[in-house]
Design goal:
By secondary structure, the protein is mainly α. Among the domains are: about 110 residues, Serine Threonine Protein Phosphatase 5, Tetratricopeptide repeat (Alpha Horseshoe), CATH 1.25.40.10; about 80 residues. The protein has 24 helices and three strands. The chain has a three-stranded antiparallel β-sheet with strand order 1-2-3. The chain is globular. Keywords: Coiled coil, Repeat, TPR repeat. InterPro entries: TPR-like_helical_dom_sf (IPR011990), TPR_rpt (IPR019734). This is Anaphase-promoting complex subunit 5 domain-containing protein.
């Protein structure tokens, strides 16, 4: 098979794709033109749909139902096209870290096919059968070289990334597993852990992060594995474990930064923020505030040195610090920090919506929480609705990652509607949030059961104190289930203790013996 030989690929400052040839020459292609190779079918379909919908002479011939169907298809295809553009840019950025000339022939051929937008041919070349045949040949040798195993694992990672472009997460997961089995080095365990965290399969992610930790040969590798494991544990509400691992990672990064501050100051800032998030969730506010302030200071320092490179990190820390201040009733200071975070994230989301819209939705949701705490319920609902619209859009493309956020904002919006006596809308929001959270809890109970308890408490309150919804049986059922769940997490999640207290008040409201019920649960 004859094909062009490349050394490396990168995206230059003029947004060109620069391919370095083995003979030393360079081939430049406008990045937009390169992406068009992959999106042209969708672009063509978008044009056809726009022509059908916006040409008055044609649209009048269509039924209302047909117009609605075509509009929905146009929205879906446009989102798929935009998602492909972002993912292709990401895979090119990943290629820039790869010495293509040093790769094996199969990788070079597949890369060549990818550069020519022959995605199906590339995947066919990297077929499971072909890769398994290579593995068999390697296993038959008396001593398998590490380089050969790395190359084959890289092929699996390349295949996995291409499958992710096709949203085939199930087969991609098998490729990550295969890569980590073929080559047990730190890199491949970490890549598998990152993938399974991305698709919210926390048990698998934890397994791979722990394996990455055991395979780490250098302080930097250990610090990365510890940080990623701690982020996972934090999301799984395992705050003590997360605190321990963030603290270890931070110590390693501080040590590394004494030798190379330019490289590792950013990691210190990120880990400080992550640790502060956990401390805030544990209501250790003084400790959290110290770490947030240092993280913000470092992020501003880095941003002043490298303008535009650390805005996202700065916005994240400002957002989380503002949440801490809100929780401590320092509303005016929280508003200032949320406003700066919102300004940054709005700018970033305008420039790159696929990457930064999730962060914008987070800050909008949090500002809604602040508005709600200040009894500014009209403003709260406006911000919640903006956040909800973004999160529904994201969840339509990737429900595994973004459905939890949809449920969060639904629950928050319903709280605000309840305070405004809009009980019917509040009930609808709670009901949808509970359905989503119950579904999520079947997959990740450690992560999502506390959220189920939260929404059950809110519904129990409606069933108890709002005339049009008063229902003793449903109120008791929700409260008892909320208490049963919250007791499992109350030792390390202060909020769960609050859920228990509210639920007990509901039981008392209906004349139930609260102490007897708690004793019966604890005795089981």
């Amino acid at each position: 098979m004859s094909f062009i030989q490349y050394n490396s690929v990168k995206i230059d400052g003029d947004n060109n794709l620069v391919l370095q040839l083995v003979d030393g020459g360079n081939l430049r292609i406008a990045l937009n033109e390169f992406i068009d190779k992959f999106t042209h079918e969708k672009d063509q379909r978008i044009k056809e749909l726009q022509d059908a919908l916006f040409d008055k002479s044609k649209v009048v011939m269509l039924t209302e139902e047909r117009v609605s169907t075509l509009a929905a298809e146009l929205d879906r295809v446009t989102k798929e096209r935009d998602s492909l553009s972002v993912q292709i840019t990401k895979i090119i950025e990943d290629f820039s870290q790869k010495d293509i000339a040093a790769s094996n022939e199969l990788y070079k051929q597949a890369f060549n096919l990818f550069i020519n937008a022959k995605l199906d041919e590339a995947l066919a070349l990297l077929s499971e059968a072909r890769l398994q045949d290579e593995l068999l040949l390697i296993q038959q040798r008396e001593e398998v070289s590490k380089r050969e195993r790395r190359n084959l694992a890289d092929n699996y990672l390349l295949r996995a990334e291409m499958l992710k472009l096709k949203f085939d997460f199930e087969e991609a997961s098998e490729c990550f597993k295969s890569a980590s089995l073929i080559c047990s080095e730190w890199k491949y365990k970490l890549e598998a852990g990152n993938f399974f965290k991305f698709v919210n399969q926390f048990d698998k992610a934890e397994l791979y992060f722990n394996e990455a930790l055991s395979q780490s040969d250098y302080p930097e590798e250990k610090a990365i594995a510890l940080n990623n494991l701690a982020v996972l544990q934090s999301q799984a509400n395992e705050y003590n474990k997360a605190t321990e691992n963030f603290t270890q990672a931070l110590a390693l990064y501080r040590q590394l930064a004494t030798l190379n501050p330019e490289m590792f100051l950013k990691d210190i800032a990120t880990t400080l923020q992550n640790l502060a998030n956990v401390q805030s969730n544990m209501q250790e506010y003084e400790k959290a505030e110290i770490n947030y302030k240092e993280s913000i200071s470092l992020s501003r320092q880095l941003e002043s040195t490298y303008p535009g490179s650390y805005l996202n990190q700065l916005a994240a820390t400002l957002n989380n610090y503002a949440t801490l201040q809100k929780n401590r009733n320092a509303y005016d200071i929280a508003e200032v920090n949320y406003a700066e975070a919102l300004s940054i994230r709005t700018k970033l989301a305008t420039e790159n919506p696929q990457t930064f819209l999730p962060d914008l939705a987070t800050t909008l949701n949090n500002i809604g929480n602040l508005n709600s705490n200040r009894s500014q319920h009209v403003q709260a609902e406006a911000n919640y609705n903006r956040a909800l619209a973004i999160r529904r859009q994201l969840a339509a493309e990737n429900p595994q990652t973004y459905l939890p956020d949809v449920a969060m904002t639904l629950n928050n919006l319903a709280n605000s509607q309840r305070f405004r006596n809009d009980y019917t809308m509040a009930y609808s929001g709670y009901e949808e949030a509970l359905i989503i959270r119950r579904h999520l809890a079947t997959v990740n109970p450690k992560v999502f059961l506390p959220d189920v308890a939260m929404t059950l408490v809110n519904m129990a309150t409606l069933y108890s104190y709002v005339n049009i919804f008063q229902n003793r049986e449903k109120a008791l059922k929700c409260s008892m289930e909320a208490i049963t769940i919250a007791l499992q997490f109350s030792e390390f999640m202060p909020l769960c203790e609050k859920y228990i207290q509210i639920s007990c008040r509901v039981l008392t409201h209906w004349g139930e013996d609260t102490e007897a019920f708690l004793d019966s649960i604890k005795s089981k």
